[in-house]
Design brief:
about 475 residues; mainly alpha; about 75% helix; globular; disordered N terminus; disordered C terminus; binds protoporphyrin IX containing FE
């Protein structure tokens, strides 16, 4: 049945005739995602306070070295991964016009991810980790659980897509399957015993860090946006070909750029140069992807004005361009010399992982959940979530970009390190202020998700539904 997806900033009165079992699975993933977001960013907020007030506590469990990886791994594997995978379960089945291959495998994947994040965080807090290897601090048995969840999800999606009742594989599914396959191989390679020490450890660390963000989070959210944006606007994507161009250039260029994390290091100079060249080449991918989304939105000002899901997507797309273009410049040797090792890179991480990835996840969540459950959160609270997060990340990004640049210039000028610490104090305070707004928005998000959960009566109403949902 064809039903309009665009709704005004008013309670919705139409719902998708979705598959009840799928709805429950999607909600379980999104609820888990919201819980991890609150926990992970509470830790992030506390960390940001420590920059301004380092003497705030003297508890071993709360030291910076333990809490930092708890923050990053929780938001990566707990918040963003659960959110993206949850939305992908819906998108894959819907665009394939097919029931999910196996609900049971979906629930097992969900459980494996939660167990891995709980176990991983407890280990990190207790000081049990895989060494100072960013984003792969979880010990291997823990990461094996996460990788297992990805394998099951990949298998589940593969058969759902394979049994599709449509002729074409929709572009979203290319991105989603690509992301899963890349990340499974990435997680395996990064944990091979001979890549845990020496020179190879450094090379693989660069490869892992950037493939993590570039071949997991980026293609997953882009794939989801290729579904949600045209759906919410009720029109087709501007150009399928641009989407395919962006997909393949992403696959080729992004895999070559990990070494830009280690410019001026003992890694071979030519390897660093290759990474820089492909980092610039990424502009092709990013411009193609951004243009495709913005041209799809052209003439749809009413959707931006009348919904909150579309503004979330719009912000995500703009930050995709801003953050990636910023990254391409940061990869140049002359500029990396200023920005490497300092807070500019932290700003870039949040401009991309938050402004881009997180906003696109939220756009998908607000676009989908009310139409699955028939229950919408209060518009006021969705609006407050949007503005607090938007202003918060703007303050976060701008303050650290300015502060980080001054920090780098101070180091280059040969001034004492302490000078750069004093110089950063007001910028760290601003980051904590931005972070407080962001954290407030996450509490609202969690509350909004709770408000959108299906009611029992609605559950019973759709329980009897058996028809395969239409992809239109
Ligand atoms: C064209 C695209 C991009 C390029 C060329 C690029 C380039 C860079 C560079 C040069 C660094 C700093 C390396 C250093 O000096 O330490 C960096 C760091 C980082 N980037 Fe990007 N970036 C891009 C897009 C993205 C996207 C889309 C994301 C997130 C989804 C992202 C997430 C990160 C993160 C988390 C770091 C910090 C890594 C660390 O912990 O050291 N980047 N990026
Ligand atoms: C209330 C919101 C947040 C606050 C206050 C916050 C704060 C922080 C702080 C203080 C750090 C350590 C920076 C350092 O070592 O100098 C950090 C690191 C990081 N955070 Fe967040 N964060 C927040 C939300 C998020 C979210 C939602 C994500 C991802 C979806 C994220 C991803 C990261 C990453 C990737 C790093 C490592 C950056 C790097 O090494 O370049 N953060 N965050």
């Amino acid at each position: 049945m064809r039903r309009p997806l665009t709704v005004a900033k008013a309670p919705i009165d139409e719902v998708i005739d979705a598959d009840h079992q799928l709805t429950r699975l999607v909600f379980a993933f999104i609820t888990a995602s919201a819980v991890w977001l609150v926990f992970g960013t509470l830790v992030g907020l506390y960390l940001s306070l420590k920059f301004r007030w380092p003497e705030i506590d003297h508890v071993p469990w709360l030291t910076f070295g333990r809490l930092r990886p708890i923050h990053t791994n929780t938001v990566f594997w707990g918040f963003a991964s659960n959110g993206m995978i949850g939305l992908a379960y819906y998108v894959v089945a819907r665009t394939s016009r097919q029931r999910l291959h196996s609900y049971k495998l979906g629930w097992i994947s969900l459980a494996l991810i939660q167990i891995s994040v709980v176990a991983g965080d407890i280990c990190l807090a207790a000081g049990i980790n895989n060494g100072a290897q960013e984003y792969r601090e979880y010990i291997w048995p823990v990461m094996a659980l996460f990788a297992g969840a990805l394998v099951l999800t990949c298998y589940n999606f593969y058969w759902t897509i394979s049994n599709r009742t449509t002729k074409e594989i929709y572009i979203s599914n290319w991105y989603i399957m690509g992301a899963l396959l890349w990340t499974i191989s990435l997680a395996t390679i990064a944990y091979l015993p001979f890549y845990q020490y020496g020179f190879a450890e450094t090379a693989i660390q660069g490869y892992y860090m950037h493939q993590g963000v570039g071949m997991w989070f980026t293609p997953m959210v882009l794939g989801l946006t290729y579904y949600f944006l045209p759906k919410l606007l009720n029109k087709p994507i501007y150009s399928y070909s641009l989407g395919v161009l962006a997909f393949w250039t992403q696959m080729v260029f992004y895999t070559m750029i990990g070494a830009h994390h280690f410019l001026y290091s003992p890694l071979p100079w030519w390897l660093q140069t290759v990474a820089i060249l492909f980092s610039i080449g990424m502009l092709v991918t990013v411009v193609a992807g951004t243009a495709n989304f913005l041209l799809t939105m052209k003439g749809s000002g009413h959707a931006v004005r009348n919904t909150y899901a579309v503004p979330f997507l719009l912000v995500g797309v703009v930050y995709y361009f801003v953050g990636s273009a910023q990254g391409s410049f940061e990869a140049l040797r002359s500029l990396n010399m200023i920005w490497h090792f300092n807070n500019y890179t932290i700003g870039h991480s949040h401009i991309t992982m938050y402004g881009f990835v997180t906003f696109l996840i939220w756009g998908g969540v607000y676009g989908l959940l009310p139409r699955l459950s028939g229950r919408e959160a209060r518009q006021l609270f969705i609006g407050m979530h949007f503005w607090l997060a938007f202003i918060g990340v703007l303050i976060y990004g701008v303050s650290l970009s300015i502060g980080g640049t001054l920090q780098g210039l101070s180091w280059l000028a040969g001034k004492p390190f302490e000078d750069s610490v004093t110089l950063m104090a007001p910028y760290w305070l601003w980051r904590a202020i931005g972070g407080t707004l962001m954290f407030g928005s996450h509490l609202l998000f969690a509350y909004n998700v709770w408000c959108m959960l299906p009611s029992k009566s609605r559950d019973e109403a759709v329980e009897t539904y058996t028809e395969v949902p239409s992809a239109s």
